[in-house]
Design a protein that fits this description.
Elements: E1 4-9, E2 12-17, H1 18-44, E3 49-54, E4 64-70, E5 73-79, H2 96-99, H3 101-105, E6 115-117, E7 126-128, H4 131-149, H5 164-179
Antiparallel strand pairs: 1-2, 3-4, 4-5, 6-7
Amino acid sequence: MIKYFVTKYKGAYMQQNRRDFLKWSSLFGGLALTPMQLSSNLLKTSPIVTKWAGCNVNCGTKCPIKVHTQDGVVKYVSTDNEGEDEFDTRQARACVRGRSSRYKVYNANRLKRPLKRVGKRGEGKFMPISWEQAFDEIASKMKEVKEKYGNEAFLSLILLAPTAPCLEIVTDLYLLLQDS
């Protein structure tokens, strides 16, 4: 037997059973507690830590970037916006590729271990190998190339800017040094 009780709402009396009353009161009670729960969760969050780093896209300029992390997770990456931005003392602002490097770190398709090709080139067949095996195979291949072609077979682009004139300057310097 469902018992009804009478409540007054906007000047009119209406019948309501106990089950409906408990449903509605729990809904409104939960809504009343939500702001307090949200504010307590905001107080528990750890601070955002900002550190300077060098951009690691493959252009070679290593622009300074700020990496903002919270609990060890990169939240966002910003560029140099400190100091004067004059003609002779400019800010080294990273490009969009550098500022979006966070997406490279957390990409679902990112390789997380070395893979070795087992099929023909272009087939897309790979098997996972250990880091030690990968380093050993790379080192042995580099030794083989060095013995066959010499040290000149390796070019380090660490100090080069991403522009073609810089490569021409390095090539010219290399040829000048070989002639002398």
